[in-house]
Amino acid sequence: MRTVGVEEELLLVDPDTGEPRALSAAVLARAARCEDGRDDVFEKELHSQMLEFATHPQSGMDDLGAEIVRIRGEAARHARETGCAVAALATSPLPVRPSVSMNRRYQWMAEQFGIATQEQMVCGCHVHVSVGSDEEGVAVVDRIRPWLSVLMALSANSPFWQGRETGYSSYRSRVWQRWPSAGPTELFGSAERYHRRVADMVATGTILDEGMVYFDARLSARYPTVEVRVSDVCLHADTAVLVATLVRGLVETAARDLETGREPVDHSVSLLRLAGWRAARSGLAGDLLHPATMRRAPAETVVGALLAHVEDALADAGDLERARAACGELLRRGNGAHVQREVFGRTGSLREVVAACVRQTQA
């Protein structure tokens, strides 16, 4: 059974106004003082209004879900003790002046990329799935490319930006594309070609190191995993578990295709970018591009195609019925973008949107 780990980035907000607060250093200091020995899961992020955590690798989705809920609760407790709250929001609905963390790496980024660094106060969900080797990992990266936009649509949770309705379900993903190394990739074909491409990118001096290669899916620089990075941070913990379940299904399916000699689909990067744009724009509320044909189809049809594609892998892991039920519930309930818009439509207040998301982050 392949193990799965999840990294989530959370927004720190004022519990009364909903405005982001630059208190990550205080929250991290309080977490470090705790005696339970479990709070080293928290890390500093690019901006002081953000807090990141990482789960341990898990084989079972029940265990993964329980850990996400537990750590979200710990983050909320630490934040409360320092005068703020945590919200699983991929962008701030309210206006904010982002504060870059005092860190040599982050300061280099601010100097190198200017206003684009300031704008990157966005929160994502990254899923790590174990692979047996770099060769297997690159084969997986090549084969999962067409399906990543569907994960973006499922997780979309950023319709508001700096006090405005964006017209997008995942505006975070559009902001993220401003990094020069971000986005979909062409087929690599081998681990040697993958590593050569990464080395060439670093050698340009445009990015600092391998950690700044922000491909939609990449080999982790720290762990023996494929890391999928397209998702918004999910408003609900159960959506994060669904995304992780589907990513593991995609990785396992791709590895089996490698074993049987099935070649990856050679969609161009141009088409993959269009699929990502469509997913960011529509979320689950409109058409997506079908990964097989790259033609428009209803979101429900495309989500069903993803489930069918990974069905055998999900069934073998004991995850199939759970994933079907979770997809059905998400299509009925709507993703985080839908929830945020529903609250705003009902209240007319972005502060109420943030307050509702603070409550639902731990629900």
From TrEMBL:
<comment type="similarity">
    <text>Belongs to the glutamate--cysteine ligase type 2 family. YbdK subfamily.</text>
</comment>
<dbReference type="InterPro" id="IPR011793">
    <property type="entry name" value="YbdK"/>
</dbReference>
<dbReference type="GO" id="GO:0004357">
    <property type="term" value="F:glutamate-cysteine ligase activity"/>
</dbReference>
<dbReference type="InterPro" id="IPR014746">
    <property type="entry name" value="Gln_synth/guanido_kin_cat_dom"/>
</dbReference>
<protein>
    <recommendedName>
        <fullName>Putative glutamate--cysteine ligase 2</fullName>
        <ecNumber>6.3.2.2</ecNumber>
    </recommendedName>
</protein>
<dbReference type="Pfam" id="PF04107">
    <property type="entry name" value="GCS2"/>
</dbReference>
<dbReference type="InterPro" id="IPR006336">
    <property type="entry name" value="GCS2"/>
</dbReference>
<keyword id="KW-0547">Nucleotide-binding</keyword>
<comment type="function">
    <text>ATP-dependent carboxylate-amine ligase which exhibits weak glutamate--cysteine ligase activity.</text>
</comment>
<dbReference type="InterPro" id="IPR050141">
    <property type="entry name" value="GCL_type2/YbdK_subfam"/>
</dbReference>
<keyword id="KW-0436">Ligase</keyword>
<keyword id="KW-0067">ATP-binding</keyword>
